[in-house]
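Input chain follows. Return structure tokens only.
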Amino acid sequence: MSKEKRFSSKLLLAVILAGVALYLPAQDVEHRVFAGKDYFRQGGDWVVRESSGASFQVDPQVFTVKFKETAAPAVQASLHTAVGVEVLRTAITGFMDLRTDSDLFAVMQQYLASGLMESVQPNTIGKYHAVPDDAQYDQQWYPPLIQAEAAWDITAGSPTVAIAVLDSGTEFNHDDLGTGADGYENVWLNPGEDAWSDPTDPSTGNGIDDDNNGFIDDWKGWNFGDGDNDGSGSFFHGTAVAGVVAAKTNNALGVAGIGGGFGNEGLKVMVAGVGNNAPNGAVLDDAILYAAENGARVVQLSLSVGQSDAIDAALQMAFEDFGLLIVCSSGNGGGGSVGYPSLNPFVMAVGATDQSDTRAGFSQFGTNLEIAAPGTSIRTTSLGDGYTTTQGTSFSSPIISAVAGLMWSHNPALTNEEVRELLHMSGEQVGGFDYNHDATRPGHSLELGYGRINVLTALQMSGLSEEFYLDGFESVVR
């Protein structure tokens, strides 16, 4: 770079920083407004209240930015140095996660005041959509209801289809998910990484990033929450979600996953931890992009966090550029609005039904809800090679993810948009709700979206001729 260019970059930065102090507004220490959102003190922490009514704790150190395309790398680096932040990672969407030990809002305001930014946002610590209960319910009541048993005669899941479970981590050594006495597993193995010398011990990898994807020894996925290759997690939630997707079926052990194979390999669970005890918004976009770049067909989310431009960009890229279907639970607050990220237009929001085939009382609903699946008394895998009965939209969402995986197992040529529309079409209009509330979306209800899933119908539709998709699809989809 010439001396003139170096000088102009420094001069530009000096002008920017000179105006920062004047730009910082005086704000109440218990209430701050930043980028159009209200932040409040609660128990010593900052929280943000989203438009859905949900509140989330703000990460006090990590925030996310995206520079304008006109901001030269040298100017970006100079601003980081001048403000005193650490660059943690940069996504292929251009969003950067930055770490500061100073006052978060003051630092973010410096970036915002620079005039160089397209986006500046704090990150939030979210919630998994679990409502555990202790009922000793030892049977799976819902597979016959949604005609999964009949669907398994068509396919029980192909090991070529990976479902990325972005959650608290998955116990990949669980006998009903990983390699057990039956000698096979439904856990995704990274083909570009050398196998660990001990398949149960992540520390026995070769210490090399064999596939040059930026993650060392991620043979069984990655824990973005801890930044290591041990994605097993210490909270039951992720293991329970994974069991709904792909617990081995017909292996004389435990429970049957919707896509668990039938005495052999089924759908593969790609393990991506995003926070052991709560989802971390700062890493969620990285996990979404990891799933996309490593060949997943579905991103499975059973969580909510505060809205983030970085997450929105990752969701859009995963859907539009990589062709993934993104599925997320609607939330357990019971209100008439789904949470985030399920309200993102590139995400399929899933609600819960109960054993009476109506909306579960805790299930959030509304105009953004697309479909529903059983979500009460769900028997599934748990930590310590165990099992649990639980409930929540967290366990409805993976049913839909697994059904999408079955559809791609049956017809790999489907696009994500076709899978999404066919899932709409497969819904059964149960519960006695108004499925014609909106003339522009015939067959849609506020309570259950396009209805409660029918697995057999979804598979039958997914296997229709190519002419259906070319000639008739647009005229019949909702």
